Amino acid sequence: MKRHDAPDEAFILVFSLFILVFSLFMLVFSLFILVFSLFILVFSLFILVFSLFMLVFSLFMLVFSLFMLVFSLFILVFSLFILVFSLFILVFSLFMLVFSLFILHKDVFREKQKAWLYPRNPPNCFVFFVTKLSSVTKTAETEHSGTSDSQSGLLALSVSLSAHITCIKHDGVLLCDSLI
């Protein structure tokens, strides 16, 4: 029986050594799996943190894009306001230009009218008046030869003044140069 027990003991010893080596290998493999799982866990945590960071960044970019949209709309409204205001200023300046040209035209017309009504060379009017007075006096003397000199002079003066006033009424303005 001892001869039969020796191989059994050797077999059991070899088998137990094999089980020991296999268990050591499984221990190392389990440790490797544990380290790999820890690495995967750390990597997943990193991915989770990165995804949260990207979520926060995307929310920030969304808020920033909304802010930029509101700011661009504000700039657009402000530019439209400036455009309308500039158009108003342009229309107002054109109106003031037309109004100033109108006032200038009225002033020029008034100056011309004053120049016609009150000429700068009164001797022409005086010469016209004296010429009219002398011609009417001669006409009155020939027509009324029986009247005295003072009456004929007075008649000639009144006729001359009435002719002068008639001339102003017909022309609207006194143009002495054209009447001589």
Descriptive report:
The chain crosses the membrane at residues 12-36, 43-67, 73-104. With 180 residues, this protein is mainly alpha-helical. The chain has a domain at 120-180. It contains four helices and no strands. The protein has helices at residues 2-117, 122-143, 149-171, 176-179. Helix 2 packs across helix 3. The longest helix has 116 residues, at 2-117.
Unreliable runs: 122-128, 159-172, 174-180
* Average pLDDT score: 74
Rounded to the nearest angstrom, the distance between the terminal CA atoms is: 178 Å
Gyration radius over CA: 63 Å
How many E-type strands?
Answer: 0
Helix and strand pattern: HHHH
β-strand percent reads under 5%
* Number of distinct helices: 4
What's the shape?
Answer: rod-shaped
The structure class reads mainly alpha
Helix content: over 70%
Taking the sheet with the most strands, its summary is: none
Lay out the secondary structure.
Blueprint: H1 2-117, H2 122-143, H3 149-171, H4 176-179
Write a brief structural summary.
Keywords: Membrane, Transmembrane, Transmembrane helix. With 180 residues, the protein is an all-alpha fold.
Describe the structure using short key phrases.
mainly alpha, transmembrane helix, 4 helices, transmembrane, disordered C terminus, 180 residues
